[in-house]
Each structure stands twice: as C-alpha cells, then as structure tokens.
Design goal:
With 424 residues, the protein is α/β, with parallel strands linked by helices. It is built from 19 helices and eleven strands. The protein folds into two domains: 186 residues, Periplasmic binding protein-like II (D-Maltodextrin-Binding Protein, domain 2, 3-Layer(aba) Sandwich); 209 residues, Periplasmic binding protein-like II (D-Maltodextrin-Binding Protein, domain 2, 3-Layer(aba) Sandwich). Helix 18 packs antiparallel against helix 19. The chain is globular. It binds alpha-D-glucopyranose (GLC). The site of alpha-D-glucopyranose has 12 residues, from helix 8 and strand 11.
Length: 424
Amino acid sequence: MTPRQLLATLTFIGTAMGFTHAQAADLTISCGAVGAELQLCKDGVAIWEKRSGHSVDVVSTPNSSTERLSLYQQILSAHSSDIDVMQIDVVWPGMLAPHLLDLREYLPEEATQGHFPALIDNNTINNRLVAMPWFTDAGVFYYRKDLLEKYDQPVPGTWEQMTETARIIQQGEREAGNSGMWGYVFQGRAYEGLTCNALEWIDSYPQGDTIVNEDGEITIDNADAARALTLAQSWIGDIVPQGALNYTEEEARGVFQSGNAVFMRNWPYAWALAQSDNSEIKGKVGVGVLPKGGDNGQHVAALGGWNLAVSKYSDSPELAAELVAYLTSPEEQKRRAIEASYNPTIESLYQDQEVLAATPFFGTLYETFVNGVPRPSAVTGDNYSRVSNAFFNTVHEVLSGNTSAEQGLESLESELTRIKRRRW
Ligand code: GLC
C-alpha cells in the first residue's frame, strides 16, 4: 500500500468511527457500543475529565468483536496515533501485544491489586501487562419465569430439555395468538460470538472439549461435538428463527426483550436492559447457568470480557494510562455493575451489598463467572483469529444446513491442522 492509499484508508476508518479532528482532545478512547455500553463509557470518562481537567474524545466501534479486531489491526499496523486507549477483547492480548504498552511501567502497583489473577495473567504477554481488566463476561441463560410457570415447566437442565420446553411453550403461545413467538435465540452470525455459543454447546457434552485443548492438540473432530452441533442445527427454523443465523448479541436481545422468545443465551449486560422501565419483560426474567449437554454433561459458560490497553503509538502514554487506571478502578467498576450489570474484574465487588442488590445473579452465579471456559486464544497465540474464524464459519455452515456436523468437523480438523503446521 502506498502512503497515500494508507492515509485514505485511515481517513476512511476515522470517519467511519466518527473521529473529529477539528478540535483535538487530549486523548481518544474507543469503546464498545453494545446496549448501553457507549453511554456508560462516556459517563465514566466524563467523571475523569472533570477530576483531571483533561478532555477525551470517545469513539464507538462496531458491535461485532470480529469487525472490531480487523479495524484495530488496520489502525495498529499503520502505527496510527489516532486512538490512545483501546477496549480490547479477552482473546486479543496475544495477537495485539506488540502494539501495546506495558502498563506496569506506567501504573502504580496498587492498580492491579484485587483483580482476578487469571485475568491479569491473561493480559500478561512475555512479562508485559498489555491491558488492564475492565469487565469480565460469561455466557448465561435467560428464561421467561412467567411462561415456565404458565406451562408448568421447570428451568431446563440440558440442551435436550431446553429444546422440548421451547417447543411446548412456543407452540402454546402461537396458538394463543402470539404468532411471533420463538423458543430460543442466540448469537448465530458467522463471527466471534458464534465461537462462544458453539464452544459452550460442544464443551457441555462429556467428551466435547474446547476445539483445541490446553496442550495445543486439536480436539474438535469428535462424536460429542457432532452431537452438539447436530442438535443446534435442528433448532433453526424450528425453535430458533432462521434470522438468528445473522444475530449478534443485540439482535438476540431485541427479540427476547420484546417478549418474543422463551429462552436466550447472552452476556450479563442484557439483564439491566431487560429489567429497565421500557422493557416488555421487566420482572419476568430469570438468569441461570446454560444447559448441560445431556444428563452426563456439564454447565459451561464461555469466558468473555474486555480490557483497556494503551497503544504504543499514543502521543500521550502517561495520560492515557491514568485514564485506564481510573476506568478500571473499583469505584468505576462498581458504578458500571450497578447501573448496567457489567461484571467487575475486582473480586471484592462480588461481596458488595449494593452491587448484589442491583444484580443478584452476580452472587448466585459467582462460580460461573470465575470458572468460565476460555476460548483457545492463549494456546494458539497469533493464530487465534484464524482458528476462531475457521470454527465459526464451519458452525455457521452446519447451522445453515449446508453440511452435516460430522463432515463439517472433519474438514475443520484438517483446516486447523494446516493452520497449526507443527506448532502453534
Ligand atoms: C462479548 C464478550 C467477548 C466476546 C464477544 C463475542 O462481548 O465479552 O469476549 O468476544 O462477546 O461476541
């Protein structure tokens, strides 16, 4: 790419992300915009601006983690100083580390204390702390308490029971006049969110495992993985709308929150919004663990979450690190937990009475949050996005009915073997 083409690309990215270069602020931070996320980020930044006397531009990023990653990769590989502080996914530190500052050089020791050690470890690459944990995530199961009661059904414990119960209630509600009712919604678009959903289905079966195991062995071509995907394939057009093949978090929440789904898989942020005053389902929602794969399976939640990193190309690294320290502090994490059910990364906040009163399942599902199953990003390092892309594309093909689970998994195994070569 010539310098002129590069500049044109960056200007285009800048415009797409809503940068304004007219009145340069002291810093620029990019935040997610899923649900209330952007406003929540802006509010936290405003508190820091007031206290510090500095000005910050907040720019939003696409909702799909996969799209966000390619945007960041373009910006970082161009060594652009446009963004100082970046919100980065829990699966990215290994891939982006060369472009990020070691925050240990900028932050006081206390800043990292009290955070879950596993998250600090996750963000430490070659002894460099490349990002501070901001919020953690785990896949959870949302259900309509009122409908389970009306049809006298328990909260389903296995995916098989979920399928049955979804069918019964969907049919009953449709017969009663709600023709738009569906049994289940989840994130089915071919993107990172589908990797999380499908990992949960597969690993919830006894021998399903995690695509690539902790030793780096490719384990995906197995009978339990096929069993999980075959069941998921059967949902499409039956208890799950065909359109879910294009859903991210927000589309799934839209259907559930407007009262048109019995069950939903989503992250904790959806809770505060489902309970808000303009929600159709306020007071009717339960949150629990995701179903197991069969009676001998296990409840699995994919570990998600986001961190704040400072770009190596920032013109104001010290100031950027100060902003990161404030946004990831206990005070700000508590505000975000209470106002919008974002999971703190600071252990003690899970015992905070105000946090627990606002989001009771932070207490009841504590074990789920600390035992989330990581995607194989640490073990596959730089190759993670290729691994995840290959995985979600295969799962999407299976869900779309273009291939069987067995065939899809067999060719996925070969593809991953090609990506791996001899070592990750
Ligand atoms: C959530 C998770 C993140 C994950 C994404 C997938 O934002 O926190 O880790 O990659 O969902 O859609």
